[in-house]
């Protein structure tokens, strides 16, 4: 697989035209020097080696593999610059690595403090481990083709209401490891939402934040400060709420209290470990589930 990636990148580099982050094209033959090509090839080889180690680790973990790892952390920064040139000399789009609908802007130097300008055809954005502080209404207003946004490990403390309102194709949104205290309205076609390791409280999550997301499958809200379980759509299969401040649940939290025959077939995994709530006090609250939630029972 590593050889294929390198060959693919080599064919990409040899192409005379590359789409840059402003949406314009630049002549790569006249801009990109041979030593800069070596920088990209060495970087790709290093990243592939790291990915292979992570895949092997996940296979070794087996059943203990945490499903929240559906979003892998960004690759670790190299301790020294790649041999053959200075990455800071690369054209802007190559600093972000733009590849046919995908934009990778991870651990950018100099520091990236705002969402970068994106090509209008962008479908996948990975801007992990930067210093982005805020998401505005303008950041994604013209990028209606987005299907996945990963902003893990930034400093985001504010998202303007309506920032994602035009993203009708967005399926995966990862805001883990930020400083969020409230959530905006989310796109209706989301299948995966990850806000693990933020500062969310129940008052910062609107009552219908997830209720209308009829295609949502994975919901990760672990390691926050939520006091109650939010409304969970029927489509959801995995819910992670570990390490919050949840103290109480009810018959309506997961099931329908007035219907003892109701079965919830989709919800397969619920994590409530690390919360103050004592689950054994609410035995009738899980009758509709195929398996008991993970958490404190005594």
Structural description of this entry:
The chain has 298 residues and is α/β, with parallel strands linked by helices. It is 18% helix and 12% strand. The strands form three sheets. The chain has a nine-stranded mixed beta sheet. Helix 5 links the parallel strand 12 (238-240) and strand 13 (269-271). Helix 1 (2-14) packs antiparallel against helix 3. Residues 2-33 and 60-92 have low confidence and may be disordered.
What is the gist of this entry?
This protein has helices at 2-14, 28-31, 34-61, 92-96, 251-254, and strands at residues 17-19, 25-27, 98-99, 102-104, 124-126, 134-135, 148-150, 158-159, 172-174, 192-194, 218-220, 238-240, 269-271. It has 298 residues and is α/β, with parallel strands linked by helices.
Biggest sheet: strands, sense, closure?
Answer: 9 strands, mixed
Order of helices and strands: HEEHHHEEEEEEEEEEHE
β-strand percent reads 5-15%
**Morphology:** elongated
Number of helical segments with 4 or more residues: 5
GO molecular function: growth factor activity
InterPro entries: Leu-rich_rpt, Leu-rich_rpt_typical-subtyp, LRR_dom_sf, Mimecan/Epiphycan/Opticin
Organism: Oncorhynchus kisutch (Coho salmon)
Protein name: Mimecan
């Amino acid at each position: 697989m590593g050889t294929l990636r390198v060959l693919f990148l080599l064919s990409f580099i040899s192409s005379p035209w590359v789409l840059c982050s402003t949406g314009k094209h630049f002549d790569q033959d006249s801009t990109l020097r041979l030593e800069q090509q070596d920088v990209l090839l060495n970087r790709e080889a290093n990243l592939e080696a790291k990915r292979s180690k992570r895949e092997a680790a996940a296979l070794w973990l087996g059943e203990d593999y945490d499903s929240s790892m559906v979003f892998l952390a960004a690759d670790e920064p190299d301790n020294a610059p790649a041999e053959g040139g200075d990455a800071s000399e690369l054209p802007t789009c190559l600093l972000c690595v733009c590849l046919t609908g995908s934009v990778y802007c991870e651990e950018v130097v100099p520091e990236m403090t705002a969402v970068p300008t994106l090509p209008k055809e962008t479908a996948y954005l990975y801007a992990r481990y930067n210093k982005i502080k805020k998401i505005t209404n303008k950041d994604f207003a013209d990028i209606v083709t987005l299907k996945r946004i990963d902003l893990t490990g930034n400093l985001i403390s504010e998202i303007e209401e309506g920032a994602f309102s035009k993203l009708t194709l967005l399926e995966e949104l990862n805001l883990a490891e930020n400083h969020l205290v409230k959530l905006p309205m989310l796109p209706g076609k989301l299948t995966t939402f990850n806000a693990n390791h933020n500062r969310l409280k129940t008052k910062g999550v609107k009552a219908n934040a997830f209720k209308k997301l009829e295609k949502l499958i994975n919901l990760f809200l672990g390691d926050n400060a939520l006091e109650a379980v939010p409304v969970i759509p029927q489509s959801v299969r995995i819910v992670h709420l570990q390490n919050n401040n949840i103290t109480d649940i009810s018959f309506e939290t997961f099931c329908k209290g007035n219907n003892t025959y109701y079965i919830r077939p989709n919800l397969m995994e619920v994590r409530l470990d690390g919360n103050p709530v004592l689950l054994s006090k609410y035995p009738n609250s899980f009758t509709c589930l195929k398996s008991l939630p993970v958490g404190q029972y005594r």
